Each structure stands twice: as C-alpha cells, then as structure tokens.
C-alpha cells in the first residue's frame, strides 16, 4: 500500500537541511522567515506542486500536512492534492503570539479563515480539514478555546498540532499555562484531544499523559529523523506500546531530513536500538501504512482489502546495486522488508498509484 505521512510541513521544503539549531531557535531562525513568504499565492502554488510531487516520488499517497497561517497556503495545497486525487488532510496554522507579526492572525481572523476552508475543502473529493494550532506556546487560551469551539461545531474535522517535542518548549508551556497540569492538559481543557487528534512528537511524556492519550483515542506522530536532526530526543516506543497509545510515523519535513518513509523507518529502528528495543520490519511498515491510516482515522486505505481505495506503490528490489545484491541472500519476508527499510529511499520507488491510476513513474 501507499505510504501515509502523519506529520509534515509543506512550507518548510526550502529550510530542510538547515544547520545548527534546536527547536525554538529553529522556528525563529528558519521556519518563521520561510513561512512569511507564503503570503504570496504564487509562492504557495509553486511550493505545493513541488511538495505533492515529492510525496508521490517517495511512494507517499496520503498525508497530514501543516500549511502556514495564510489561508491561501491551504488553498494551494488542497488544489494540488485534488489534481492527483490524493487522500490528504491539511489546515492553515493558528497563531496569535510568539511569532512575527506577519504570522499572527488573532482569534476572529483565524476562526473566519478556518471556517471558510472547512466549508470549501472538507469532504471535497478525498480531502479533509485539520484545525491546526501550531503548538501551545504560539496560541493564547483564547485562541485555543476558539479552536475547540470549531471542533465542537465541525466534529468530523481533525485536530493537528505538536506536543512535548523539546524540553525548552515544555518549560515554556508550563510558564505560559500555569493553570494546566501538563502539556496535554492545555489541549484537553479546550476539547482538542480525541479520536481525530494527531499530536506530533510526544517524546517527553509522563505515564499519566500516556494513559489519558490512550483513553482519548488521540494519536502520536513519531518523527525520528526530525528528532535526531534537531536534537529533541528519542521517542519511547515501549511506553507507547505499554499504555496502548495510538502511534504512527511522520517525516516532519523540514526538521525531518527525508520525504521517504523508508528512511523514516530506518531512523525509527535506530532510535529504538539506542533504547535496547529492536523494531521489527513488520511493525515499521505497519506504522507507515495501515497503522498510520488507523491513527488518522481512515478505514479505507492502508492495506489491500478488496473494498479499500487503490493507493499503492511499487518498490524496485534491484533499484541500486547494493540492494540488488543483498536481496539475493534474503531468506524471509521479514528480512526482505528489513533490507528495504535500512537501505531504501526514493530510489526504490518505481511507480506510485492513487485510486488505481499511475501518478508517478521513476524516469
């Protein structure tokens, strides 16, 4: 089946591989300046087209995507995804503090723009909308309350945000929201945590947060290439398993370093190895396909059930000399999949299909 990316930022394609910053500096030094340019619809359209083509070239057929605060950033992405008939969820970002003036929209402006986008795009062909507060430090209680009101009014839409990625971020949340018991509670008290909520990262969580997440049905998007590159930490897969917290894989471009879910699986394996856990290839592929579909709340993609939508990718087992040589000695399906996720990247993607139609073929 086609890969499903549960957390990715399309406006950050031009800051991927930027040197030397951890999360809070990454935002101020790279992310915010890049996102300011998305006030220009032409820049949005160009970036959206490139982004969609990159997803397909990496075998990714569905994604949960951050735009920018600009309404036209979401419009441009939805338009490009509709052309390919992709199943894609996205939203404009909500921020009303802690960012440059050109990226702040306030409670009323954010509500109006979000409602226009929901009415225009949610349920249009295979597209869906996500209410998208960037993360707690860039939203006031008033804006988060507004986001919760939107979710109550439109219960079928998703919620997509970040949580517990970086220790300095967590300290900032504690200072900005002294009334909250923890980071998760900031979102819970505004009705933003439930079956259709995806929280990116979740690296630094305590047991109580895991239990509450499990009960809520919300999912964590694990983004290992980003966590390693920005130096945020190592996600604890064993703890997520123990408390039955829904989880899947995300590339988190541009903090993440590859559009490839194969490369993301490799990084996930390495993160687990550092903690004494060997992630099986079966579980890794599940986290990028059916597990991701279930985390997002889709029941008609992610595997080859007869009634499912025909989104799939063809991988070339001889795409590189090394992969071809290694494949000659594999002795099991698990070993074959493991080789693919350790040695694989976009070079292995031969062709990508959406709804049974070829939308990418390797030159």
From TrEMBL:
> Which lineage is the organism of this entry classified under, starting from the top rank?
Bacteria, Pseudomonadati, Pseudomonadota, Alphaproteobacteria, Maricaulales
Cofactor, how bound (note): Binds 1 zinc ion per subunit.
Amidohydrolase-related domain residues: 1-357
Q: Which domain of life is it from?
A: Bacteria
Q: Name one GO molecular function term.
A: guanine deaminase activity
The reaction(s) this protein catalyses: guanine + H2O + H(+) = xanthine + NH4(+)
Name listed for the protein in its UniProt record: Guanine deaminase
Q: What EC number(s) does its UniProt record assign?
A: 3.5.4.3
